C-alpha cells in the first residue's frame, strides 16, 4: 500500500532522521496483541501478574460543572479486574498498570479521536492519534524522528524555552522566523526560504515548530489568513510542521464580553458546534491535504500538568515511526493518568468535556480582562505597551529601553544589561516576570526589551498588587 493509497498525497519518509530510518518495531512488543487473547497461554514477556499489583481500585470525583442543565460532579471507582468495572469503557487497573500499548489505551484513544473529529476537519483520510507524555516529550521525540545533528529547525523568533533547549541539546541549527502581533510573518518566511543561503544560514530547514494559539511567551495567536499559506510553504519547500497547541482551548471571549454559557432547553451538541466549536481558530491540519503536519495536544492546560498526558495527531505512517521510538524510550504513557482521565471523559461524555472547556474559556477570559485592565491603569504608557492576547495565559510588557535615563551611560546601550537590572529590581520588590531573552531563538536579536507575565495562576487581588508594584518600579527606574 502506498502513502497515496493511505490518504496522503505526499511521501515524506525521506525527511526522517537516519536514526528513525533504521529503527524497527520492537520484536517483543509485537506479542502484545496476544496478551488479552484467552486462547493464548502468554509466556512470552516479563510482565508481572495483575493480581500482584498493590491496588484493588482507585476512586475519583470531579468538580461540579454547575451549568443550567444540571450537570453536577461525576465520580467513579475503577477496579483492578475487568469483570468489576462500573462501565465497560473504563480501563481496568490490571491493564492500565501493566506494560501498555505504546499508542495508548484503546478506550482513551477512541474518545480522543471522537473529540478530535468534533473540533478539527482533518483533510487527510488516514490520520491517527497516539498518546504522549505531554507536549514537551512529544516535541523531543519529533526532533529525534526527523532531525540529524546539524540540521535546521525553523522556530518563532521567541519560543518556549524548553522547546528551544531540546533542539539545541540535539545539536540542531535553530533559525528564527519573524513575528508580529498576528504570529509568524508568513510573507517574511517565504522570502527567507526563497533566498536561503546555506553558507550563512546552514542546511535548508527540515522542520518548522510553531505554537499557534496563545503563543508562549508573546501571547499572540496566528492569524487565520496566514495558516493556509504556511501549509503551502511546507509543501513548496519540502519540510514538516510541528503544530504544538496546548493552549487551543484557552481561546477567549472578546475583551469585556460576558461569559458564554449553555442556555436551557437547547440541543446541546448543536449549540456547542455553533457557539463554541465553529468560533475557535482552525488547526493547520485542516489545510494539510498532503500529510505534512503533526499536531501536538495536551491536558496540561485543561486538566493538570502533572498528569503528563498528551497526544500527537497526524498521518498514520508517520505516527508509526513515533510509536517505534516510544517502544524503546518511554514505552507507554502513565497508566494512572490514562485510566483516571479516561474515566472522567467517559462519565462526562463529549458534551460534558466541552462544558468543562467552556468553563475554562470563561475563567481565562475574566483573568485576562482583569489583568489588562490593571496594566492599563497602573503601567506608565510613556514607556510601556501591552499586547492584547486572544488566547492562552501570557501577556508581554514591552518597555522602551531608550527612555531609561542610564541606558547609554551605565548600561552601554545594551538591552540585555538593562533587562537583567530590571528583572532584579522586580524581584527585590516582590514581583517576578520572565525575561524575554530566555525565549529568544537568535541571540543576536537583542534590541527588544520585554517581560512575559501570566494571568493564569494568581487571584484578582494578587494580580492587581503585582501590577501596581510593577508600575511603581518602572516609574522609579525611568524617573517618571
UniProtKB/TrEMBL annotation:
InterPro entries per the UniProt record, alphabetical: Aminotransferase_I/II_large, Class-I_PLP-dep_aminotransf, PyrdxlP-dep_Trfase, PyrdxlP-dep_Trfase_major
Keywords annotated in UniProt: Aminotransferase, Pyridoxal phosphate, Transferase
Annotated ranges, domain Aminotransferase class I/classII large: 97-445
Cofactor requirement: pyridoxal 5'-phosphate
Domain of life (superkingdom): Eukaryota
CDD domains the UniProt entry points to: AAT_like (cd00609)
GO biological process terms on file: aromatic amino acid family catabolic process; lysine biosynthetic process via aminoadipic acid; tyrosine biosynthetic process
GO molecular function, one term: pyridoxal phosphate binding
Keyword Magnesium: no
UniProt similarity note: Belongs to the class-I pyridoxal-phosphate-dependent aminotransferase family.
Name of the featured protein: KLLA0A04906p
Amino acid at each position: 500500500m502506498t502513502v497515496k493509497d493511505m490518504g496522503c498525497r505526499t511521501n515524506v519518509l525521506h525527511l526522517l532522521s537516519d536514526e528513525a530510518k533504521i529503527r524497527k518495531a520492537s520484536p517483543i512488543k509485537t506479542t502484545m496483541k496476544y496478551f488479552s487473547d484467552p486462547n493464548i497461554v502468554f509466556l512470552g514477556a516479563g510482565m508481572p501478574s495483575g493480581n500482584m499489583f498493590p491496588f484493588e481500585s482507585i476512586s475519583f470525583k470531579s468538580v461540579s460543572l454547575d451549568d443550567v442543565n444540571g450537570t453536577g460532579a461525576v465520580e467513579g471507582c475503577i477496579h483492578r479486574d475487568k469483570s468489576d468495572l462500573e462501565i465497560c469503557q473504563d480501563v481496568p487497573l490490571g491493564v492500565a498498570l501493566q506494560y501498555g500499548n505504546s499508542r495508548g489505551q484503546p478506550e482513551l484513544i477512541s474518545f480522543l479521536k471522537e473529540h478530535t473529529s468534533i473540533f478539527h476537519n482533518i483533510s487527510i483520510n488516514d490520520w491517527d492519534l497516539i498518546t504522549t507524555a505531554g507536549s514537551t516529550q512529544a516535541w523531543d521525540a519529533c526532533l529525534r524522528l526527523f532531525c540529524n545533528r546539524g540540521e535546521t529547525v525553523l522556530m518563532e523568533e521567541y519560543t518556549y524555552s524548553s522547546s528551544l533547549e531540546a533542539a539545541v541539546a540535539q545539536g540542531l541549527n535553530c533559525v528564527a522566523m519573524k513575528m508580529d502581533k498576528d504570529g509568524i510573518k508568513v510573507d517574511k518566511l517565504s522570502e527567507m526560504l526563497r533566498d536561503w543561503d546555506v553558507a550563512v544560514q546552514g542546511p535548508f530547514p527540515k522542520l518548522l515548530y510553531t505554537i499557534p494559539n496563545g503563543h508562549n511567551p508573546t501571547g499572540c495567536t496566528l492569524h487565520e489568513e496566514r495558516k493556509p499559506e504556511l501549509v503551502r510553504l511546507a509543501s513548496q519547500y519540502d519540510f514538516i510542521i510541528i503544530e504544538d497547541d496546548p493552549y487551543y482551548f484557552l481561546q477567549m471571549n472578546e475583551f469585556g464580553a460576558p461569559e458564554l454559557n449553555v442556555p436551557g432547553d437547547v440541543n446541546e451538541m448543536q449549540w456547542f458546534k455553533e457557539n463554541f466549536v465553529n468560533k475557535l481558530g482552525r488547526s493547520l491540519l485542516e489545510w494539510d491535504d498532503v500529510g505534512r503536519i503533526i499536531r501536538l495536544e495536551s491536558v496540561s492546560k485543561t486538566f493538570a500538568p502533572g498528569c503528563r498526558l498528551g497526544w500527537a495527531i497526524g498521518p498514520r505512517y508517520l505516527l508509526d515511526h513515533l510509536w517505534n521510538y516510544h517502544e524503546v524510550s518511554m514505552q507507554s504513557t502513565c497508566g494512572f493518568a490514562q485510566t483516571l482521565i479516561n474515566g472522567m471523559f467517559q462519565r462526562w461524555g463529549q458534551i460534558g468535556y466541552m462544558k468543562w472547556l467552556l468553563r475554562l474559556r470563561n475563567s481565562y477570559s475574566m483573568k485576562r480582562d482583569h489583568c489588562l485592565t490593571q496594566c492599563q491603569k497602573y503601567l506608565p504608557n510613556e514607556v510601556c505597551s501591552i499586547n492584547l492576547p486572544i488566547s492562552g495565559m501570557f501577556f508581554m510588557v514591552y518597555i522602551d529601553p531608550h527612555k531609561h535615563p542610564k541606558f547609554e551611560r551605565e548600561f552601554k546601550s545594551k538591552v540585555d544589561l538593562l533587562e537583567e537590572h530590571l528583572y532584579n529590581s522586580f524581584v527585590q520588590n516582590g514581583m517576578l516576570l520572565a525575561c524575554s531573552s530566555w525565549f529568544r531563538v537568535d541571540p543576536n536579536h537583542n534590541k527588544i526589551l520585554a517581560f512575559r507575565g501570566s494571568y493564569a495562576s494568581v487571584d484578582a487581588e494578587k494580580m492587581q498588587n503585582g501590577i501596581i508594584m510593577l508600575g511603581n518600579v518602572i516609574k522609579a527606574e525611568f524617573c517618571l
